[in-house]
């Protein structure tokens, strides 16, 4: 079955129909979902979702754009939450220079990115990394943190095949979602050509990044067959093979 390795079902976009939507997943061929926190509040709501739904797992971390929420007290609180059952990863953490261009803000992002990599090392959990317009600094922080010892996935990978080659050397996975179906995603398709299917995870990042033909609408895991179809065509394999291999990849990484 399809394994959605990155979703945000605690987002307000799902407030009106969350129960009905999640109840429909098995019937739509979706077997597992990792719900991913982005700030301290969503750590709580992600844990609540994982507790309620047997097929939902939790990734806990603070997104770079919310790094200002962190201090030593909240960081210690986050570390304690990582010990709770059904937590399978530290994430999403990383760097985002698209919105935040001030030097001090970017420095804060790098500091808390490194500290949350330390959390992964302390807990033995893999990592979900968000990186936007920050390829060089992301790789530098990961290299300093010996990311190859931690294991993880580059969420919503959007960089070049050269960057992909470096991450492949570390044995990491790549989160591939709706962007692969966009007409202007040439760079991503070139990178995917070089990434073995055994290193790819399916993801939605819902409610964001719905694939064609639903681009611009609210996304959810039921849209992943469009990504499966695109990957199957590009890799020259069956859709069933894409689903089976990416599911096993996710189960291996998240140990579920």
From TrEMBL:
<dbReference type="InterPro" id="IPR001130">
    <property type="entry name" value="TatD-like"/>
</dbReference>
<dbReference type="InterPro" id="IPR032466">
    <property type="entry name" value="Metal_Hydrolase"/>
</dbReference>
<dbReference type="GO" id="GO:0005829">
    <property type="term" value="C:cytosol"/>
</dbReference>
<keyword id="KW-0479">Metal-binding</keyword>
<dbReference type="InterPro" id="IPR018228">
    <property type="entry name" value="DNase_TatD-rel_CS"/>
</dbReference>
<dbReference type="InterPro" id="IPR015991">
    <property type="entry name" value="TatD/YcfH-like"/>
</dbReference>
<dbReference type="GO" id="GO:0016788">
    <property type="term" value="F:hydrolase activity, acting on ester bonds"/>
</dbReference>
<feature type="binding site">
    <location>
        <position position="6"/>
    </location>
    <ligand>
        <name>a divalent metal cation 1</name>
    </ligand>
</feature>
<keyword id="KW-0378">Hydrolase</keyword>
<feature type="binding site">
    <location>
        <position position="205"/>
    </location>
    <ligand>
        <name>a divalent metal cation 1</name>
    </ligand>
</feature>
<protein>
    <submittedName>
        <fullName>TatD family hydrolase</fullName>
    </submittedName>
</protein>
<feature type="binding site">
    <location>
        <position position="130"/>
    </location>
    <ligand>
        <name>a divalent metal cation 2</name>
    </ligand>
</feature>
<feature type="binding site">
    <location>
        <position position="92"/>
    </location>
    <ligand>
        <name>a divalent metal cation 1</name>
    </ligand>
</feature>
<dbReference type="GO" id="GO:0046872">
    <property type="term" value="F:metal ion binding"/>
</dbReference>
<dbReference type="Pfam" id="PF01026">
    <property type="entry name" value="TatD_DNase"/>
</dbReference>
<dbReference type="GO" id="GO:0004536">
    <property type="term" value="F:DNA nuclease activity"/>
</dbReference>
<feature type="binding site">
    <location>
        <position position="155"/>
    </location>
    <ligand>
        <name>a divalent metal cation 2</name>
    </ligand>
</feature>
<feature type="binding site">
    <location>
        <position position="8"/>
    </location>
    <ligand>
        <name>a divalent metal cation 1</name>
    </ligand>
</feature>
